[in-house]
């Protein structure tokens, strides 16, 4: 069946792989496309553009004015737009302006929430499921460091708002259940200098629907593509049925289908270079675990301590694991290896420095009193919270290889 859905690959990294796996596992029709494809007018071949998570600002840079113009033209003429998390942020007034929505400034929102959360849902086809698996306010979904919306436009439908967070979720590196039992959010917010209490998210819009010209725009700050989330997978399938019914690939009795069946591996373990690259990243992740800097939340995501760049290391790990599942030639990995080995060596040094700094002061990803630590941080990640430095060069190269091999 020909796909009527385009998945924008650029600047998604971990979140792009998460979305790719979820769509493949649920047998939903799609094709991956690049920002350059969009600039060259290829959206005309599709009915819907799906933009997964990632930094909205970096997605905007990759698209440029030409790509953004093409997307707006596509939706205005009747194409549909679906955005998750960063892909949702890209469509707001802070990005392309497909919907009359703003994102709350960081100081006004809870910037570091992650994990399971209830939704207060309003009637809509995307919540419809079988009699045995109805989507209700008691259904649990997943949000991974989402934004929060400000909506004043009455023409925008709010399909769901944030409900209560579950006790196993986290705000920054703090377990929600433990902190609520202790009743210390106020004190911790003063210490961390950010909003932490998940109750600050209550009743804020989480899933919305609107129009731009003749097209429909649906934005979700909840990740329905989370690994091992059967209810999220049901909503994902419903989104396809609702937005692109002609492209649905037909899971007729899919409520009992696993959301993440084992992926087929097209090649073996690959060359010596493949194993060397894989081993280097595994050592980096192991170093963080044994130094109590992070632990695993699910098959794709880590939970890290405040003060280290856990999302970046997690992203690198997921991308390398995806590479090893593909049939890779040595020439595909040569540049990756040349960038990765020096990065890993310096990252190990940085993690130990950050581990020691935690004993003396309260550090964040940008704040640390040690001069050497600051220098290595800037070299590896740049000055901004979004991806930069040597890390950005490395993941861009891996991403290019992945895009080429997957497509």
Keywords:
alpha/beta; single chain; 2 domains; 12 helices; 407 residues; globular; Rossmann fold
What is the CATH-assigned architecture of the largest domain?
A: 3-Layer(aba) Sandwich
* Overall number of structural domains: 2
Nearest-angstrom radius of gyration? 21 Å
How would you spell out the order of helices and strands?
EHEHEHEHEEEEEEEHHEEHHEEHHHH
Report the end-to-end length measured between terminal Cα atoms: 16 Å
Number of strands: 15
CATH class of the largest domain: Alpha Beta
Q: Mind summarizing the main beta sheet? A: 11 strands, mixed
Structural class: alpha/beta
Fraction of residues in H or I helices: 40-55%
Instruction: State mean pLDDT (0 to 100 scale).
Output: 91
> Which oligomeric form is depicted?
single chain
Shape: globular
Describe this structure in words.
There is one protein chain. 41% of the residues lie in helices and 17% in strands. The chain has helices spanning 14-25, 35-39, 56-76, 86-90, 176-182, 185-192, 230-243, 272-290, 310-324, 330-360, 371-381, 389-406, and strands at 5-8, 31-33, 48-51, 80-84, 101-103, 113-121, 140-144, 149-151, 157-165, 170-171, 174-175, 205-212, 215-220, 294-296, 302-304. Strands 1, 2, 3, 4, 6, 7, 9, 10, 11, 12 and 13 form an eleven-stranded mixed sheet that branches. A two-stranded antiparallel ribbon has the order 5-8. Strands 14-15 form a two-stranded antiparallel ribbon. α1 (14-25) links the parallel β1 and β2. α8 runs antiparallel to α9 (310-324), α8 (272-290) runs parallel beside α10 and α9 (310-324) packs parallel to α12. The chain is globular. The model is unreliable at 251-269 (pLDDT under 50).
